[in-house]
Amino acid sequence: MSKNQLINRIVKTVLYVLVALFFIWTAANGYYNRIFSDSETFLILFGQHLLLVAVSSLLAVIVALPLAVFVTRPKYKKFEWITSNVANLAQTVPSLAVLALMIGILGIGFAPAVFALFIYSVLPIFRNAVAGFNSIDSNLKDAGKGMGMKPSQIFWRIEVPNSSYAIIAGLRTAIVLNVGTAALAYYIGGGGLGVWIFTGINLFDNGFLLSGAVPVTLMAIGIDLLLAWMGRAVTPKGAKSATLQTVE
């Protein structure tokens, strides 16, 4: 284990211990009673939050991954700079400003919230996918050609497996960000656990606040751990370090 990996593991362990202690303290003070006393509302808000994240992330994947494949082909590589700049520009707009803009176009409710989250998800997925495809050793592709592989076989058997770690890292970043940002959907009537979070803030009620914020935190941690496991499971040995160096 390298020094950086050791530091990373220690920091993560300390953070998880602090989070666990915080949960124990807040539970002992009864801050989560609302989840059980009003469980029907909680399940509705939880489902809305999950749906916001799932739909916006799926749309981002549908747009970002094919776009990344397109701009990393030698014939169309000249379009990489403009697509990267457009994606970067969209990411620089504050999330609340995007929500306000969407109200004028799509009104209030679920649709504008999903669109705003979609915009924020595209860049991490696109950027990591581009870095992953660009990190593949050209000798691997040449070896594939030498073995008589067709371009589609080189893509699915060499490029996709060897860039999968970077692609999933982008998905982790985008989806975890989405879980937190989806709370802002409350401002435009998009529902989700932000309803309880901002009600708690407005009323100075820690019960409301933590009953909304803690499930959001647990959702983000759970998704992050699941995708981290998937990244390790699907990535060929030896491809992780080369890909990570390119992404960083």
Describe the model.
The longest helix has 33 residues, at 39-71. α4 crosses α6. By secondary structure, the protein is mainly alpha-helical. The two termini are 19 Å apart. The chain contains eleven helices and no strands.
Please write out the topology.
Elements: H1 3-28, H2 33-37, H3 39-71, H4 80-92, H5 95-106, H6 110-134, H7 138-146, H8 151-181, H9 194-203, H10 206-234, H11 239-247
Helix pairs in contact: 3-6, 3-8, 4-6, 5-6, 6-8, 6-11, 7-8, 8-10, 8-11, 9-10
Strand content: under 5%
* Unreliably modeled segments: none
Give the tally of β-strands. 0
Number of helices: 11
Which descriptor suits the 3D outline? globular
Rg from alpha-carbon coordinates:
21 Å
pLDDT average, as an integer? 85
Q: Helix amount, in percent?
A: over 70%
- Derived from helix and strand composition plus strand pairing, the structural class reads mainly alpha
SSE string, helices as H and strands as E:
HHHHHHHHHHH
Major sheet details:
none
Distance between the termini: 19 Å
